[in-house]
Amino acid sequence: MLDRVAKNSDGYPPYNIEQTAENRLRISLAVAGFSMDDLQITQEDNQLVIRGRQRDDSEGRIFLHRGIAARQFQRAFVLAEGIEVEGAWLDNGLLHVDLQRPQPEVRVRSIPINGSQGHHAAPRGAVPSRGMGAKVAAMPIVEGRSNRG
Q: Which residues form the SHSP domain (predicted)?
């Protein structure tokens, strides 16, 4: 269902792709420190693009060690034809995006079976029988032309 994942050079943020049902996938990204307002998910044609941008709130703070970077990211996933994004949610620092490939609709159509004359045009000049003494007008054939005998 996912054709290709566009690779970031640094692998940030890390992510998992899991199959949750026969035609369903879940992409989970580790986005600790990001709020819902910091994240954006868009579908651009067949690409699912997830962007994160944190506001710099370090003003007036003194860090002795800063290992949690407030940096932006973009992850792009190329979706196979027909994949639909069902929804997304943020839970305990993980952003989950559910994908589904809808089952094709089973369409049943009854095709009438015609007799041997119903499928083939009558020979030129032939007039179908309609009983004794019935008058018959010229019968139209395919594409609007008429059989004029």
A: 6-116
